[in-house]
Amino acid sequence: MKSLSRILLQTSMAVVISAAAVVSSQAASALEPEKIQAALQAAYDKYKGLQEGANADYIPVLAKVDPNIFGITLVTTDGKIYSVGDVKSEVSIQSISKVFTMARVIEESGAEAISGNMGVDATGQVFNSIVAIEQYQGEEMNAMVNPGAITATSMIKGANGDEVWNKIINTYNDFAGRKLHVDEEVYKSEAETNQRNQALAMLMAAYGRIEGDAIEATDIYTRQCSVAVNTKDLATMAATLANGGTNPVTGKKVISAENVDEVLAVMATAGLYDDSGKWLYTTGLPAKSGVGGGILAVSPGKFGIAAISPPLDAAGNSVRAQKAIADISNALGGNPYKVQPK
Ligand code: GLN
Fold it and tell me: Is the pTM of this model over 0.70?
């Protein structure tokens, strides 16, 4: 009897081991270097000539950015980097910065600091909606729309504005794995025209969501939006989230693994503004876009991907970047909701 049960046990273990081998070889084959590079190239070739959308112009300097910039980078969770197209040109990070400031707040003050203040629900309104604040009295919003994002910036702890800023930029540097800089022309252009964001911040202060100086928080937020990035920076930032908060290229732990899922949840529900549902429906990927033309997306455990192309659609999301990232991720099995029955 004993030996029979041992044989059975050994046989079932062998089955388990070989099943695991099949699963891991499937995962490996989807992310083979040639396959990744081919997927990037195919998307680049397909969308390079696409002439849809227009640069953002409510921040005057963004209207002057070359609309033909188009580049894509994918970084795997084992730190391999794949690129196609223009990976040198930098654009301003804009709203994508909101992800990393929110991550820093959670790291410093816990996940409840976010859910208990500006909330974690989609507003169904544009990213700089005053109506959304009024409707929810500054709660039941999220850190991916301007009122919530400026509030998140105001929640970073520091004795003064410089200390807060240094924490923010150092966080971004660690996510990107290099020292980033502010595009001063973009900062100046937005600082001169950000009265609406100041109004959003004052309203959040009136509802008790921002403690301290709301105008200073708006100014720091404007600076964080003006950080210059290329596709490799954005893809590495995304890959750090895909890799549980540790940068897979530098090996540096940027945020704790237990704080990543809350960040991804808010990206999934609100990262592409009021088109977030459509995006999630076709890709399953937590993502974030910015009016500079960048989009990054996270395939948890697998890769981070980013594309830059300045012309935006009506919702404020880069047309080429959305299409390219969706195609590439779907070709590589990036959708975490797509599973085969056992
Ligand atoms: N800095 C921009 C703003 O506050 C960011 C908006 C965006 O990228 N959607 O309006």
Answer: yes
